[in-house]
Structures are given as structure tokens and as C-alpha cells.
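The following block was generated as part of the benchmark described in Methods. Ligand: (2R)-2,3-dihydroxypropanoic acid.
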Amino acid sequence: MSGKRPRVIVTRRLPAPVEEQVAREFDAQLNPEDRPLDGPGLGQALRTADALLCTVTDRITADVLATEPLKTRILANFGVGFNNIDVAAAKQRGVVVTNTPEVLTDDTADDAVMLMFMVARRAGEGERHVRAGAWTGWRPTHMLGTRVSGKTLGLVGMGRIARAVARRARQGFGMRVLFHDPYPPAPEVVAELGVEARASVDDVVREADFVSLHCPATPETRHLIDARRLKLMKPTAFLINTARGDVVDEQALVAALEARTIAGAALDVYEREPAVSPALLAMENVVLLPHLGSATQETRVAMGLRALDNLKAFFAGAQPRDRVA
Ligand code: DGY
């Protein structure tokens, strides 16, 4: 990089080592108070910065991208998911979009496995019980959950995170793992993972004891898990969502849980995040986490540095490694 340093607006507070490095490399505007930018705020950022280091909760819509005069040439999204950005509109306006794959795979897979155990073994409920002072002591019939080991896990999507979940489930817990992905991995990958392909999402949800979602949020996957597919699930089965909230019709999920046509759900993401359907808050057989999939110190630093690498490559005139548009 030569001459004047590019102006980068960082839309949210980032881990300190990342902020330090962004400030060293660029003419950076940080957000120490961590105030989210609304539509007009994002529009203003696009008019004044060469780049935005934005996050998965910044809604960079076609309207926002229609701002004039548009100065920004790259949106370096801090997150593997980029459904917060209207990629077609960005492309049309000549704005490059990058994401941060790979670095969050293991932590997000761990999160999915944690949720599976939490809901099956009633961990949230048990925690609340102890904290409420309601525990009267060990007894053979107290708070019996469902065994995870040896059961069938159904993965919807078979990208990096799903594969990491499959490894944990197969090697750690002796689970049988089924999956459906319209773009399945190569046969040798399927064989190495020891997983079984199914022809449709319906087949996966029908057979699984645990259904875990690992597909991106796209118009095609919106409400992929709807009332009809929830009805296909076994009444003893659990739904795990660490992907994106709108892959599940949350209202239909509430209805299925109320009618007990499924056994429970464990959610990290929500359709109207950060709002959560009030009915879910009252259900003991539901685990609710605040979008923690990648939330470890190690991963959030790695995500920031990866976004920064994408910015550096772009402004050095090279192809950013994680260009998605
Ligand atoms: C992502 O990277 O898309 C995650 O949802 C953020 O944790």
C-alpha cells in the first residue's frame, strides 16, 4: 500500500488485537462504544469510507447500497455467513464482498454438539433447577434425559461445519450420521467421514434422532424447516439450529413444540434475532443461546485477522482470498 492509507470503517467493536492491527494498517474508524449502525448510518459509512469491516448483523440492503455518492469498494464481512448483505446489489454497484470461512468451523461445530447434549440431557433445565434452589437431591427418576451416543444425527447441509460436526458425532459418540446437501461432497469425502447421503431433506428429518442445520440462509433455504417437515420428524427427535434463524419457521416450531410432535429444540439463532418468540422462552425442553457459534476469544480474533487479510489483499491490488462477490 502506498500513499494515503485507505479509510476503513469498522462497524462494531472487535477484539483488541484485531482493532490494534486495523488501526496500524489503515486509516481506521473504530466503534469503541459498539453502537450498531442503522440504515442511514451504514449509508453514511458507504459514502465516506473506502471499505467497511462489517459484521453479520449489519443489514447492507440494496437500499443502503443505493447511496450516492458511493465511495466504498469492499465490504469485508466479519462472519462466514453473508446473508446480511445484498450480494447482487453489491455486485451491481461494483462492491467486492468477502467473508471469513474456515477459522470458525471447529468452534461452531462444538456449539452444535454442545446444544445437542444440552437439550438431550436437559442441561439448561437442570441448571435452572439448581440455581432456583429447587434440587432436593439425587434420585433414580430425577430429570431423565435422552442418550446421545449411538443415536442417528441428520445433517441438513454438508459444508465445512457440518463435516466437523459429523467427525465429532461419529468418532466421539459413535453416532450414525445422515445428510442431505444439494451440492454433496465428493464420494471419497463421504467415505472418509463415514456418513450416509440421503436424497432429500425429508428423508433426513424422517430418520434422525437429532436434526442439525448447516445450510446457508438463501431465498431457497428460507423456512426449509417448516410445519410440514417438522411433522415428518420423530416425536422423540430434537432440532438443533446453529445456521441462521430464518431457515426455520419459528412459529411452526413453536406449534410443533406445543403439540409435542417433536421432543425439543436447541437454538443459537432466531428468525427475528435478537427477538425470540416469547413462547420459546417459557419452554423447558428448549435450549436458547445468543448466537454464540463462533464466540471464543481465539476464533473472534482469527475472524478479525482474516477480514483484515482480505482488506489488505484488496488494497494491494490482489484478489482477496475469501471473495464471495
Ligand atoms: C457467522 O460467521 O456467520 C456466524 O454466524 C457468526 O458467529
